Amino acid sequence: MLGKLSRREVAVLLWCPFVVCTGHMLALCGWDGCLVASTKDSLLNTVFVKRGWFWTSTVFWWVVVRYRMEDSVTTRTPLLPLLRRYTITTAAWYVFTQQLWLNVPPLMDLVFVWSGGSCLLDPATTPGTLWLSTSAACRRHGGLWQGGHDPSGHMFLLSLMLMFLLSELPAGSSGGRRRGKHAAFASAAAAARFILWDEPGVLALALTACWTWALLVTAARFHTLPEQTSGLLAAVVAHLSARALG
């Protein structure tokens, strides 16, 4: 499959490993302290990363719709293949990170449990190990995952979103206005109009930069290298599957 990839797609596939390696280099050199907003309770994590697929979907489809309004019918990118790839990628995100139905945990939690992991509660409150099959339920009970292999959900999500945006935005935003750039920032309202209406691709680029930063922080501060690697590889498989089937 790699032999059939374009240079751009190869660059997309290499971007996330490059960011992850950079994060580990910062950690090894003791420079990871310069990474601000690097706690699990930070605004970046709670508002943006944990709701990342919502933000990615909203920005991406707004860019597609807005630029298609500017393109002629003959130059528009076919929408159906784009929609298929988005649907497959969304399905991969849901299966890997979200509770599937009733008591069926997401794939990342199934891997953890199947590899011998369990939820350990605080001995001061509830001694012993309680059978909680999802990481979300474990956190709600004040417990911690112990044992097993815990694929990094953040690594999976951030890598998947980055690869999706970097691969699809050029196709989805081939048009776009080029008028009024010099007057765009005459006021805050004009700047907002420029970003949200005239050139929403700027918003997509900002979101891509945000996910890149979050991936760098995750690589430097959270999970072990094997857990990060499994999350990254799962994202690569999902991305390549969407490209192949879409």
Q: How does this structure look, described?
A:
This protein has 246 residues and is mainly α. The chain has one domain (2-30, 56-69, 78-239). 63% of the residues lie in helices and 3% in strands. It is built from ten helices and three strands; from the N terminus they run αααααββαβαααα. The protein has helices spanning 7-28, 43-49, 52-70, 79-97, 107-114, 135-140, 153-172, 188-198, 201-221, 225-245; strands at residues 118-120, 129-130, 144-146. Keywords: Endoplasmic reticulum, Hydrolase, Lipid biosynthesis, Lipid metabolism, Membrane, Phospholipid biosynthesis, Phospholipid metabolism, Transmembrane, Transmembrane helix.
* Outline type: globular
Multimer state: single chain
Task: Report on the biggest sheet.
Answer: 3 strands, antiparallel
Stretches with pLDDT under 50, minimum 5 residues: 174-184
The count of helical stretches stands at 10
**Overall pLDDT level:** 80
Looking across the biggest beta sheet, what order are the strands in?
2-1-3
* N→C terminal distance: 14 Å
Structural class: mainly alpha
Query: How many strand units?
Result: 3
